[in-house]
Write a structure and sequence with these properties.
Largest sheet: 6 strands, parallel
CATH topology of the largest domain: Rossmann fold
CATH architecture of the largest domain: 3-Layer(aba) Sandwich
Shape: globular
Number of strands: 12
Order of helices and strands: HEHEHEHEHEHEHEHEHEHEHEHEHHH
Number of helices: 15
Strand content: 5-15%
Strand order of the largest sheet: 9-8-7-10-11-12
Length: about 350
């Protein structure tokens, strides 16, 4: 989202951006540099904060003298607030990208860190959040900022779009026929994504629907993942499940899906992947997490988290449609994203916020 925001800034004569990564280059460092934006890397090792890195950040901010610091995610929120205050930056914004967090899956210090942020939440000028569900969760957790600003994620409507040739290409590559059904999911291997729910539902569907195929892309979703392979074997899905691993060609893969899926059980704020499915003309089935229901509207199906029976039934309902009916539903989904969540509209909201703070 940061990359999309910076690459679509319309008022380039008013804003000069600079990005600081607390760690290394990551996935988007080089892409941000290619936009002509200065990118600085502090190379902090996770769990091992470096005092020298904090001094480096302080000196960098003092040199650049920004009008606004906008931090992204919890660790940056804390560090940005402290260093921003010390270097006397006029305006500090926090940016939260999730909703309910299940702390049992994380280190014990994560909960302490979260509680500290809730106590400090009245100090930034504004807290931006990308979902109403996330705002509600953080208020219940003790966040009490001066101002909330809900800005959803935005989408480039020309990168993700329907593509019948992509549908044909992937099926040929996987050895599938043109009429074979594909249920797809794009999600990294992580407890919040609840792959146990996905595979149990897939096993249930396979017992009542002839030869559904499941295509999964995401970091850690490959045959070397023992836990994933165990779930696949446990539910008898060896012959109809395809693990693609982490991919950088998703706009060419997603249009091949008949149904897009998100099975997260917690943590989601505004799931990007749902918008990407929908822009590709793919109807979606999602668990009721974050703002998923608001994203999908009446163009897909929402099911309860941790309910494989409901998930399998939702898949079956969509597969029971004719191809023409699914196509029409998918095009309706695309129109919904274009109308409500295009990147140009979201960028406009960020720019309006920045200018309003500095008026």
């Amino acid at each position: 989202m940061l990359y999309k925001l910076l690459s679509n800034t319309s008022k380039k004569d008013l804003f000069k951006h600079s990005v600081v990564s607390l760690t290394g280059m990551g996935t988007y460092g080089e892409r941000l540099k290619n936009l002509g934006i200065p990118v600085h890397f502090l190379n902090i090792n996770p769990g091992k904060p470096s005092f020298a890195s904090f001094i480096e950040l302080y000196l960098l901010i003092k040199k650049q003298r920004p009008h606004i610091i906008q931090t992204w995610l919890y660790h940056a929120d804390l560090i940005g607030l402290i260093i921003g205050r010390l270097s006397k930056v006029p305006k500090i914004l926090w940016n939260i990208r999730c909703s309910k967090v299940d702390f049992k899956y994380y280190a014990k210090t994560t909960k302490l860190f979260f509680n500290m942020l809730s106590l400090l939440s009245r100090f930034p000028n504004t807290v931006i959040i990308n979902s109403e569900a996330g705002k509600k969760f953080h208020i219940q957790a003790g966040y009490n900022p001066r101002k909330w600003e809900v800005i959803p994620n935005g989408f480039d409507t020309e990168i993700y779009k329907p593509d019948m040739k992509a549908r044909e290409r992937l099926r040929q590559k996987l050895g599938l026929g043109e009429s074979d059904s594909i249920i797809g999911m794009v999600a990294r291997y992580d407890p919040m994504k609840d792959y146990s729910n996905f595979f149990e539902a897939a096993g249930r569907l396979s017992m009542v629907f002839p030869k559904p195929h499941f295509v999964i892309a995401g970091k850690g979703m490959n045959k070397t993942n023992y836990d994933v392979m165990k779930m696949i074997q446990q539910h008898g899905l060896n012959e109809n499940t395809f693990l693609l691993g982490e991919r950088d060609d998703l706009p060419e893969i997603i249009p091949s899906f008949d149904i897009g899926t998100l099975t997260s059980s917690f943590g989601e704020g505004f799931p990007n992947v749902l918008g990407e499915y929908m822009l590709c003309g793919v109807p979606s089935v999602s668990t009721d997490v974050g703002d998923s229901a608001n994203i999908i509207g009446d163009t897909g199906i929402i099911v309860p988290p941790n309910n494989p029976e409901a998930l399998a039934k939702a898949w079956l309902d969509l597969l029971g449609m004719t191809p023409e009916q699914r196509t029409e539903l998918g095009l309706k989904a695309r129109r919904r994203i274009v109308d409500k969540f295009s990147i140009s509209k979201v960028v406009e909201k960020y720019e309006k916020l920045y200018l309003g703070m500095l008026k």
